[in-house]
Write a structure and sequence with these properties.
The structure holds 2 protein chains of 2 kinds. Chain A contains 14 helices and no strands. By secondary structure, chain A is an all-alpha fold. In chain A, 51% of the residues are buried. Chain B has a domain of 170 residues: Rossmann fold (3-Layer(aba) Sandwich), CATH 3.40.50. Chain B is α/β, with parallel strands linked by helices. In chain B, the strands form 2 sheets. A 6-stranded mixed beta sheet of chain B has the order 6-7-8-3-9-10, sandwiched between helices. The N terminus and C terminus of chain B are likely disordered. Chain B has 6 helices and 10 strands. Classes of the chains: A mainly alpha, B alpha/beta. The interface between A and B is medium-sized, with 29 and 40 residues. Chain B: InterPro entries: AAA+_ATPase (IPR003593), ABC_transporter-like_ATP-bd (IPR003439), ABC_transporter-like_CS (IPR017871), Metal_Ion_Import_ABC (IPR050153), P-loop_NTPase (IPR027417). Chain B: Belongs to the ABC transporter superfamily. Chain B: It holds the Pfam family ABC_tran.
Chain lengths: 307, 258
């Protein structure tokens, strides 16, 4: 049996645990702005682009004969996702065509670029699996340091400037009239998303990064009101799920990314149930003078609280 | 307030030869508009006449195709031009999917090109909520409010900036009569204190006697700039004779066709 002490003293587990906490703190911060802007899929798009970056990093590493071969994978992912983020913000601004098409192209291009370039680098698409679905075995000290730096940047912007970012994402027109730097804010949010994707993909995987941005926020929306409280609640949920999911995989041989994401979805469902229960309870006294059983029935039937 | 802060004695709003196109079609033609400090100017016209477009171009939300716009003595493209401006946009259908509370919304009005850290606990936020009679609902998300309550929160967000110039787009639309009176009283008080107001109105309504000047647009051109009583009646689209319909008959019904 592995004790908590073993986990904290073993580099193999300590690094992923640190990164899990960082993912839990950063992903919902970015996610709050993405949900607000109705750009929930941006994280997915950037995850795919980051995959191309991993392959490019691998290719450059091969040229430089770097050891291990994937030494430059994460820096590559960082560069690619930041470039992708700025590019999509630019495309969104100059072309008023539908942004979901731009996102779709990002998805396909990212995956296709990844599998083609990894082959050129002398690897196979098998090498990409760890980045697609996440794994614990690949986390190095360098990864942890990079993740720490990225997390500090994301939190400094996302939490430090939350008033400005929330104002711009909530009401673009008011923000422009107030003289706020609307374009800078939009780019900052996209870049924050890119940094979060990079720091999360090792453990959670490029295909599932976005879930940690979006699902905890969606769960928090069922539990609290107000922008700041939604963000804080989502951060608590995500940290608990990321650390909890990781610890489960220490004891049971399961992929960490999948377990973490399933946990967040479980919290979302639980939040939904809690809200329905509260709404059902609240609607009873507020239901006017003496609601009949027939009046109350449709309300009860809608909630999972039906007894 | 920042009296004499670079704005000087010149006009508060100065628009010269302004034209605006949207989707390749010209919707404003060669507009000249100058507003002096302390005026209460109503911008009138039928739906689609371009009054909201003019307002949005004046505050820098829409780009001008030609011409120039100055606010408080500075070009609107400049960040500092917006410092003394309080803007209340038209009721928007999309307030984001994570509703802010009234307090958070009003606090965002404290932001400017140079001030990026507002505080929801700033006493000015409470004062602004108090001024519009919304202090009791400070913690409520704006999506769980009536149209009139939300309107008042948006006005508070503009007031918290302590603006020299207040620009409002249809502040009475979808607002019940008592709230209209409350808002009109507030405007009179601000006007008496020297705040300049530029208001897009569908009906002159409770402000009829307070408007110092009416500007009327028709198909993107200015057709009147002078006293309210002398404005031309060009409003055929709404089926009631001008001034004959009491205000409360038009209330509650949203009058946007599209």
């Amino acid at each position: 049996m592995i004790s908590m002490l073993d986990i904290l003293t073993s580099d193999l587990l300590r690094y992923p645990l640190i990164i899990a906490v960082l993912i839990g703190l950063t992903a919902p911060v970015v996610g709050t702005y993405l949900v607000q802007k109705r750009l929930s899929l941006l994280g997915d798009g950037l995850g795919h682009v980051a995959l191309t970056g991993v392959a490019v990093g691998w290719l450059v590493g091969a040229w430089l004969a770097a050891t291990p071969a994937d030494l430059l994978a994460i820096p590559g992912a960082l560069a690619a996702s930041v470039i992708g983020a700025v590019l999509i913000e630019y495309v969104r601004e100059i072309s008023h065509t539908s942004r979901d098409v731009a996102l779709a192209i990002l998805f396909y291009g990212g995956i296709a670029g990844g599998v083609v370039i990894i082959q050129l680098a002398g690897g196979t698409s098998q090498n990409l699996m760890g980045y697609l679905f996440g794994s614990l075995s690949t986390v190095t000290r360098l990864d942890t340091v990079i993740a720490l730096v990225l997390a500090v940047v994301v939190l400094a912007i996302g939490v430090g400037l939350s008033g400005l970012l929330a104002a711009v994402t909530a009401d673009d027109e008011f923000a422009r009239a107030a003289g706020l730097p609307v374009r800078t804010v939009n780019i900052l949010i996209a870049v924050m998303a890119a940094l979060t994707v990079t720091l999360s993909m090792r453990i959670v995987g490029a295909l599932m990064v976005s879930a940690l941005m979006i699902v905890p926020v969606a769960a928090a929306q069922h539990l609290v009101v107000g922008f700041a409280r939604t963000m804080r609640t989502a951060m608590v949920i995500a940290v608990l799920c990321a650390v909890g999911g990781l610890l489960i995989t220490v004891y049971v041989d399961l992929p960490p990314g999948g377990v973490i994401v399933l946990l967040t979805i479980a919290v979302y469902v639980a939040a939904l149930v809690v809200r329905s229960l509260l709404a059902a309870r609240r609607s009873r006294p507020a239901g006017g003078p003496g609601p009949t059983a027939a009046d109350a029935a449709p309300v009860a039937a809608r909630g999972p609280s039906h007894r | 307030m920042s009296a004499g802060d670079g704005a000087g004695d010149g006009p508060v709003v100065e628009i010269v030869g302004a034209s605006v196109s949207r989707a390749g079609q010209r919707v404003l033609h060669d507009i000249d508009l100058s507003i002096e400090r302390g005026e209460l100017v109503a911008l009138l016209g039928a739906n689609g006449s371009g009054k909201s477009t003019l307002l949005r171009a004046a505050v820098g939300v829409l780009p001008l195709e030609s011409g120039t716009a100055h606010l408080l003595g500075r070009p609107v493209s400049q960040g500092r031009a917006h410092d003394g401006l309080g803007y209340v946009p038209q009721e928007s259908a999309d307030t984001g999917s994570i509703p802010a509370t009234a307090r958070e919304t009003v606090a965002s009005g404290l932001l400017s090109a140079r001030r990026w850290w507002p505080s929801a606990r700033d006493p000015r936020v409470d004062a602004a909520l108090e001024a519009v009679g919304m202090a009791d609902l400070a913690g409520r998300p704006i999506t769980r409010m009536s149209g009139g309550q939300r309107r008042r929160v948006m006005i508070a967000r503009a007031l918290v900036r302590e603006p020299e110039l207040l620009v409002l787009d249809e502040p009475f639309s979808g607002v019940d009569v008592p709230t209209q009176q409350l808002i009109a009283d507030l405007f009179r008080e601000l006007s008496a204190r020297g705040t300049t107001l530029l208001v897009v109105l569908h009906e002159t309504g409770p402000l009829t006697d307070d408007i110092s000047r009416a500007v009327v647009l028709d198909h993107g051109r200015m057709v009147h700039d002078g006293p309210v009583s002398e404005r031309p009646h060009l409003d055929p689209g709404h089926g009631h004779p001008e001034d004959a319909a009491p205000l409360d008959e038009c209330l509650g019904q949203e009058i946007h066709p599209a």
